[in-house]
Structures are given as structure tokens and as C-alpha cells.
Amino acid sequence: MAAPRAGPGDAAAAALDELSRNLSYWAPGAGNGSLSGEWYRRNQIHLFGALLAILGNLVISISLNIQKYSHVQLAQREPPRPYFKSVLWWAGALLMAVGETGNFAAYGFAPVTLVAPLGCMSVTGSAIISVMFLKENLRASDILGMTLAIAGAYLLVNFAPNITQAVSARRVQYYFVGWQFLIYVIFEILIFCILLYFHKRKGMKHIVILLTLVALLASLTVISVKAVSGMITFSVMDKMQLTYPIFYVMFIIMIASCVFQVKFLNQATKLYTMTTVVPVNHIFFTTSAIIAGIVFYQEFFGAAFLTIFIYLFGCFLSFLGVFLVTRNREKEHLQQSFIDFGNIPGKQMLDKIQPDSNGLSYGTLPDGSDSTKSQSGEKKEV
């Protein structure tokens, strides 16, 4: 007698059963939830990668605050010293390298779709450290944003794909010449060339165009970083993979995509405030990395719809948390909007010089003229 064929109802029941196991705590049974020993044994490699990513992002947030603090100290000195002569700044740069190394190593143990979204921990960690270290104000939106980001990170760790695949050179070669990746790369190149044409030829410098260029390059960066880190990890734990040409191909792609990614990101930071660039770049980068992980490494292959939905909901919470933490943060540190020269002894001015918010110059006199009078009565052009 033939076995009954599994229908849609059976798949939905299996997804609900998996969901109940992931959200139950200390219930009796073998696979009794996300705090059980069985769950840890099944996911210990991914948990180690997630831990590396979280610690790496927290170290990066510490390094950024140390470098910011060193710039504040150097600005208060007379005469001012260059930042590269500060021991504190170099300490921050060293911590930055340590944090990025942790992120790099995390890709060798955990899926791209788990490591990339955990970048939200860098933003939330930086907000916490800036309150304690730089004495910045803690706002209600910061607390809400941190809570949402941590909740999103919890869902990501629980519902990211738990596939365990050794990233060997042969596997990377197989994925590299697969039809899914070839179509994906062609599609990316077309979009990249179109956006680059509007950016270079038409002079369009909108933040969406710049950060989309960054995200397209970031997808190649994530794919190559995962490949390089995975092959190094495989070489240490099993068999040498560094003699294969694909390792050096991926290494070159990683370096080149990082360089051009930083170039476009710097252009965005010059034209727009960090409170705008950071959340938009985090959303674009994470989305691009998730798509790259799905297409190249097939990380969601065979996953239940409910698991994917909760994973995407965790991404949404992390995006919203980053937005709330960075929202209007720079406006709190703006200096006084005008300089009153009337209070300086020995100086007589017509009025206060107001900054011109619509131009590149500092400002003009209230009557609109660009001239002022010297003490002898002569009119001098500014």
C-alpha cells in the first residue's frame, strides 16, 4: 500500500510545530525550544558565528566612540594636533581592525543571512557607549530603538536558516558557475551600469542612487567574504583549500568591491548627514546581503514559509531600531545658529551675521549686501 502523500496542511503543521519548538522554554522533550540543550547542539556552530558577529560589531562601536573622543580632545588643544599623532586614536583604529576581523571570521561559521543583519548591533551599541563614554543624552527613541533591535536580533538568531555546509573550494566553484548566480550577476551589472550612467553623466547624486551602488557592490563583497572566510576555516579544521585558484579569485573580488564600495559611501557621507546615511545604508546593505546569500549559497532552500516570515519580521525590527536610534541625533549637537559680534569689545557691527542655510558661504548681513564698513568709514568688500 502506498504511503499517503504530504499535502499543504502537513507542511503548515510541520512549520507550526517547528515554531512552537523554537518559542518554548524548558518544556520536557528532546527538542524543547531555543533554550534547550538539544537546540544548542543543533545550532552551536551558527551560534558561535552569531556570537563573533555580535562581539565584532560591539567592538567596532567602541572603536568609533574612542576615535570620536580623541577628535574632541584634540580639537580642544592649542595648537591642535593631527589625529594620527594621538595614541587614543590609534587604539580606536586597532579595535576597529579587531572588530572587522571578528565579523570576517563570523562568515566562516554562520550563514550570510544571519551575520549581515546583526550589523544593527554596532549602531545600538554605539548609542549605549556614547551615552556612558561621551555623556550624550539618552532619548526615549534610543531606548525603544535598542529594544526593537535586540528583539529583531533574537528572532534572526532563532529563525535564520540553520543549514550547515562546509564552504570548500569545490563548492564555491560549483556555486560560482551556477545559472542562478550568472543571471544574478548579469542583472546586477545592468542595474549598476544604469545607475553609474545617471550618476556620472547626468550628475545625479541622490542618496538612493549612491547607496544602491554601494549595496550592489556589497552583495559581491558579502559573497566573496563568505567564500574566503569559509575556505580559510575549512583549511584550518579539515583540508587545505588555499591552493585552489577560486580562493584568490574571491579574494580579489573582495578587495576590489570593498574599495569601490567605500568610494561611493564617502560621497554619500559628504553630501548627506550621518543620521540619513547610516539607516538607509544599513537597510540597503542588509537587503543586498540577504539576497546574495539566498541566490549564491541557497541558504533558504527548503525553509518553511512561516520561518521565512518571522525571519523577515526580525529584519524589519532591526531596521526600525536602527532608524529610531539614529533619528535626529546630529541635530542635538549643532552649535548656536549665529554669532553675535555686538558683544565683542571694540567692535561695532550693524547687526548679527546669520548663516546662509541655502548656500556654501557662511552668511550675509541682514540687508542682503555683501559689504561692511571699516572703522574709518570706508566700505570694504567681504
Biggest sheet overview: 2 strands, antiparallel
Sheet with most strands: strand arrangement: 1-2
The shape, in one word, is: globular
SSE-based structural type: mainly alpha
> In percent, how much strand structure appears in the residues?
under 5%
Number of helices: 12
Number of strands: 4
Q: Low-confidence segments, ≥5 residues, pLDDT <50?
A: 22-33, 333-382
Q: How confident is the prediction overall: mean pLDDT? A: 78
Q: CA-to-CA gap between the ends? A: 97 Å
- Rounded to the nearest angstrom, the radius of gyration is 26 Å
Range of helix content = 55-70%
Q: What is the N-to-C succession of helices and strands?
A: HHHHHHHHHHHHEEEE
Task: Write up this protein.
It is a single chain. With 382 residues, the protein is mainly α. The protein has helices spanning 8-23, 37-75, 87-106, 112-115, 120-133, 140-159, 169-176, 179-200, 207-237, 245-271, 274-296, 305-326; strands at 354-355, 363-364, 371-373, 379-381. The protein has a two-stranded antiparallel sheet. The chain has a two-stranded antiparallel sheet with strand order 3-4. A hairpin with a 5-residue loop joins strand 3 (371-373) and strand 4 (379-381). The longest helix is centred in the first third of the chain and has 39 residues, at 37-75. The protein starts with 7 loop residues before the first helix and ends with a strand. The model is unreliable at 22-33 and 333-382 (pLDDT under 50).
Features:
12 helices, two-stranded antiparallel ribbon, 64% helix, single chain, mainly alpha
